[in-house]
Amino acid sequence: MYETITLKTNDAVATITLNRPDKLNAFTPLMHQELVDALTIIEGDSHVRAVVLTGNGRAFCSGQDLTAVQTGESIDYQALLKEGYNPIIEKLTGLEKPIVTAVNGVAAGAGVSLALACDLKVASDKASFVQAFVHVGLVPDSGSTWFLPRQVGLAKAMELAMLGERISADEALRVGLINRVVPHETVLDEATALATRLAELPTRAIGLTKRAFYQGMVSTLSEALDNEAELQARASQTYDHHEGISAFLEKRKPQFRGK
Ligand code: T3D
Q1: Maximum distance among all alpha carbons in the chain?
Q2: Short-list 90, 89, 119, CA closest to 102
């Protein structure tokens, strides 16, 4: 169905795999479209309760495919970001379902931004991260200027973006860029196991939690408190909330349905 990615669903977990391994899964306009399309399908499929995002081959994603730039093709960078990259980041962060990324190899430029826009990040011990933008005379984009200082602090964000040094998965874990590092061969299994675990939890509450955090990061405390009250009112209406309460009172394991 797709040329540059694959989308597979197994029970409640959908897996998107970037699939241009010979180009280290570099982004093209078609990949932008296909990713947004896959995420839109996932958004509308109530059976899907968690997502895994990974790359095929030895890389996770090398960012923008530089071949087009190399050929001297005239590119409208503003349009490329607004129409190509930004909708992907908006889709990932706006999706009210948990997204686990399995960073299976190097992530560069917008490839790092893509990983940062996912909710939980599992990296292979062979993975690495490079804010490659500076090496091609560009500003970090696709959300990196927003995510990086929030995740690693301003000082480290400046260092990573200005020097563009490639850091290992262990270093990425140490600075707070990712959640865990696992042996290379197990990265997809570990990410899928995490996604499967998340898919068994109250999906609506998790989706609203994600929304609350993103809103909270750009709001005052008063606004965040108001927002929590509003989202809690919605969570309290869900089947899973009632199931959670019943299970607690009946001293049994809850059977959440994601609704
Ligand atoms: O339009 C815009 O530019 C605006 C949007 C910008 C968003 C961005 O993402 S800007 C940043 C773009 N990405 C980069 O600058 C990263 C470029 N790649 C690298 O720095 C390195 O390839 C890596 C650090 C990712 C991996 O290094 P390494 O040594 O493991 O692999 P390699 O030998 O450099 O690459 C292997 C092949 O993949 C090679 O092709 P070949 O020689 O085997 O035919 C290389 O050219 C190709 N490749 C790697 N990255 C890209 C790429 N081809 C096209 N585009 C790439 N981004």
Answers
A1: 67
A2: 119
Which residue's CA is the nearest one to ligand 1's atom 47? 23
d(CA 145, CA 170) in angstroms, rounded, equals 22
108 forms beta bridges with: 130
| pLDDT given for residue 76 in this prediction | 86
What is the ipTM score, two decimals? Answer: 0.97
Q: Tell me the mean pLDDT in the region 240-249.
A: 98
134 lines ligand 1 (CB under 6 A): no
Half-sphere exposure of 125 (CA within 13 A, CB side): 5
DSSP code at position 64: B
Question: Measured from the CA of 66, which atom of ligand 1 is nearest?
Answer: 55
- Distances in Å between the Cα of 107 and the Cα atoms of 113, 128, 131, 166, 249 are 9, 6, 8, 9, 46
Which domains does the chain possess? 5-199 (3.90.226.10), 203-249 (1.10.12.10)
For the record, the structure tokens of 201 come out as 């939890």
